[in-house]
Amino acid sequence: MLKNNLLLAVLLTFILTVSSVPAWGDSTNDNNAQTNSSGSNTQITGGYTATTTNNNDGQTNTTTTTNSTTNSTTGSDIPVGSANAPSYSAMSQDVCSMGISGSVSTLGLGISGGKHVRDLNCERIKLSKVLFDYGMKVAAVSILCQDERVFEAMLMAGTPCPFEGKIGKEAIAQWEKYDVERPDYQAYVSKLETRSQIDAELAAIEQAKIDQAIIEQEEAERQRILAEEKAAEKLRLEQTIVETDLETKEQRIINVHN
Fold this sequence. Notes:
Elements: H1 2-19, E1 31-37, E2 40-56, E3 59-73, E4 97-106, E5 109-118, H2 120-133, H3 137-144, H4 148-156, H5 168-177, H6 185-257
Antiparallel strand pairs: 1-2, 2-3, 4-5
Helix pairs in contact: 2-3
């Protein structure tokens, strides 16, 4: 019985396969169009119909399938992926380094990068602390003096940075002699130029005051001479008047006796 059922199933499958009609496409309903305008690409596909007819034991079954698909893609609407800057950090180690990263995105291109940068000032402070812990106080100060800010601050405080074992006034003399070795040489030269300009301006002001004083003194001397000359002239006039009066009186006396 089981064998008969299997044989019947195989026979029915064969009959259905032979009697099936293949699917066909309806060209009247197939409409494919592609349009490209200003960088935009649009494709529309639709109108596909498939029909299958099965004839089994005098019965006809018809199956119709219609597939309509529309796809539209515009290139200008697709966003460009962002360029993300990589993450850099100094981690948890006792190092003097810091991370720098950046990124830039433009139309169709994204670039990112990063690197570690040494912090020289941090290294200088750590080295100074280690030297101080070892009891090397002058060396600790000397390595800090490599920073021009510290160097200038030490000079302003009257405690100049050491110079090859010399401290105090001897160190100042050496720094003035070999000023090109100063860590603040550029600022030092600029400061000297500024101070020289200020000194020249102050000297010019002082010289102008001296010249003005000399002019005023000469003017006073001239006025004194003029006053003396006027006094002398007045005295001569008075003496002339007196002499004239005496001559007049003598002449009168002579005339009376005559």
